[in-house]
Task: structure prediction
Amino acid sequence: MENGFVKSEIKNGIGYVTFFHPQSNSLPGVLLRSLAAEIEKVGNDNEAKVIVLKSDGDKAFCAGASFDELISIKDLETGKVFFSGFAGVINAMRKAPKFVLARVHGKAVGGGVGIASSADYTYAVEGAGVKLSELAVGIGPFVVGPAVERKVGKSAFCQLTINATEWQTAQWAKEKGLYAELFDSVEAMDKGIDELANRLAKSNPEAMAMLKKIMWEGTENWDTLLLERAAMSGKLVISEFTINAINKFKQKA
Result:
């Protein structure tokens, strides 16, 4: 538990993929790789007709990149490999031949916003505010940017990116199209997810796979694009400016 986990199970045609890390569900490289692999595995399992992606615990949905790992990066290649982990998760969600429903039970920061944006249908509670905090620590939301912009549009993406220290409310995220539905409690949200997931589990898998492909038209270059973006982040994370900014942030935390 202290290192976190990724797990999956399939029940009644619904594939559940769950991740957890004790530091507000932040994601170190090993968990990012495991999460991408688990999504791909469930996506290719004929028993699962739909995927529900969620995190464990009762606090943040996902706090994005692990700051402990960011501060340990000393060279460009290591930085690129780390940020490629987010690319792997986004691309696994994009390419899964099944709809991915995301369950956002708490706040989402940075890479967490990218994951929520990469789902095909995202549920959230009213307290699930969002923030792209990357610029505040000297980098930028390069890897998750395409996924976020695809969901909320360029104007809202720029707003999140530039005003990097301010939270936007869950209602704002719903108005921009990031969240499909908002609920006043986790229990109500879980009921809503169960209802849709069970309906989809009984729907035509071939039709859903075709629809998924159509919905993601224009993203065929993301395998290459997101790795190029990972290199941008990898370069910045080893700069003196970013190292100092992350250290200051960790001291406040």
Summary: The chain has a mean pLDDT of 96.
